[in-house]
Amino acid sequence: MRRKTGNHSGKVTGAVVLSLMSLVAGLAAAPLAVAESVESDGAQSTSTGETAGEVPQSEGSTPQDASASRALLSGRSAVVKPGWVDSGGLRYYVNAQGVRHVGWLKLGTIWYYLGSDGAMATGWKNVSGPWYYLGVDGEMATGWADINSERYFLNDSGAMATGWKLLDKTWFYLNGTGAMAKGWKNLSGTWYLLGDDGTMATGWKQLGGSWYYLNASGAMATGWKNTSGPWYYLDPSGAMATGWRHVNGYWYYMNPNGDMAVGWRLLDKTWYYLNGNGAMAVGVQRVDGRVSRFDSNGAWLGYGEVGDMMAESARSQLGQYQDCTVLVERALRSVGVPAGDLGTQAYEYTSLGGKIVSDKSSLKEGDVLMWPGQHVAVYVGDGMAVHSGWNGSNTVLYTANYLGGPWTVVRFA
Fold first, then answer.
1. What is the pLDDT of residues 169-196, one digit of tens each?
2. Is 231 in contact with 259 (CB distance < 8 Å)?
3. Which of 135, 368, 398, 403 is most buried, with most CB under 10 Å away?
4. Measuring CA to CA, how many Å separate 81 from each of 86, 105, 106, 139, 328?
5. Phi, psi of 314 (to 5 degrees)
6. Number of C-beta neighbours around residue 114 at 10 A
């Protein structure tokens, strides 16, 4: 009996076709992770190699919840090998369910950041305020990083540092952009100097032919500065001064190496004397036990006479309340005359070495003017004398022609 096979064969063929169509549709609906190349990272911080729900800690901040969100690669789940997926020129990280990771991701000891679409971030990334830098491989940078010809410092949390940063006992300053500062930097009115390597300078530094002094705080010094003995003067620009400087009404001379001069100095064929405090001498002063005269510019005019020093002593007493004899006693002592409690009689002064001047029209500075039994004064030149015991014992500058002029004049050589 012959078998009929035609219709039966047709039914089988139709079923096969339907089965193949169903298979194709199923493959089309499978997760993208199955169809694409999946690269396992090999990290084993969890059973899948990923740490979810953690983020780098910014200094002084709390953890950021940036990894809770996930996006499915398709509407159907399937078990796949977790790891990196490259698609359309971007890189994603998927878990065993084919879900793209979003936010911070830690694999082993390395942090990554995946955007809201799951794409791995590279370059600068602002996350809830702080800036982070992710390398071309997506790894979060920490420590020093050279980026586009600038240096940046990323804290252990990965957050970009700004402001002052102390590293290994050395201070650095990071600008508002995060770039490491170099050269001069003004912060709140104070100047700081940062080296080419970014380190904050302290002590003496030479720049452009000028010397500057940076305090231990790094702040640039101005004005007077004493460093282990010598005094220096730093101009308002911070540059160390040399040569003459006029400060608070006095002239000072700063040697070529910047230290303040004291004592005698021969400058441009002229002698000057700088007192122990550095101030230039003017007028009549006793120097090295001798009376010297200086003009108003400080130039030495030569050694003076005893009278010059007595006159200078008398001028220095102006405004003091004292008796007229006290004025003269102090003037005599300034030139080494052992004056005790004197009166107003001429013999008291001649007994100390003074000589009577017969020509009262040729007075010299330092002459003791006397009105015996009444008053004594010291002549200081230009027809003027210093008088004490005047209108309530005050010491004043007044004419030497008091009561028609002195009745007696005593001079000490």
1. 999 999 999 999 999 999 999 999 999 9
2. yes
3. 368
4. 14, 17, 17, 21, 110
5. -65, -45
6. 24
Residue 387: its H or E element = strand 384-390
Q: Which tokens in the block code for residue 301?
A: 């005019």
Q: What is the pLDDT of residue 413?
A: 74
Structure tokens at 76: 């159907």
Q: In terms of C-beta density within 10 A (0-12 exposed, 13-18 middle, 19 or more buried), how is residue 259 classed?
A: middle
Q: Do the strands 408-411 and 355-356 form a parallel or antiparallel pair, or are they unpaired?
A: antiparallel
Identity of residue 402: Y
Q: 288-340 pLDDT, tens per residue?
A: 877 788 999 999 998 877 898 899 899 999 999 999 999 999 999 888 788 99
Higher pLDDT: 264 or 60? It is 264
Confidence bin at 387 (pLDDT 50/70/90): very high
Residue 285 tokens, joined: 């002063």
Q: How many whole angstroms separate alpha carbon 28 and alpha carbon 35?
A: 9
CA-based radius of gyration for the chain: 47
Through-space distance between the first and last CA atoms of the chain, rounded to whole angstroms: 171
pLDDT digits (tens, 9 = 90+) for 51-92: 444 456 544 333 343 343 344 444 444 567 899 999 999 999
* 397-400, long-range: CB < 8 A, 24+ apart: 397/315, 397/318, 400/363, 400/369
Residues, the chain, total?
A: 413
Angstrom distance (rounded) from CA 144 to CA 147: 10
**Sole residue written with tokens 């970009």:** 160
Question: Largest Cα–Cα distance of the chain, in whole Å?
Answer: 182
Task: List, in order, residues 6 or more apart from 238 with CB less than 8 Å away.
Answer: 191, 212, 213, 220, 221, 222
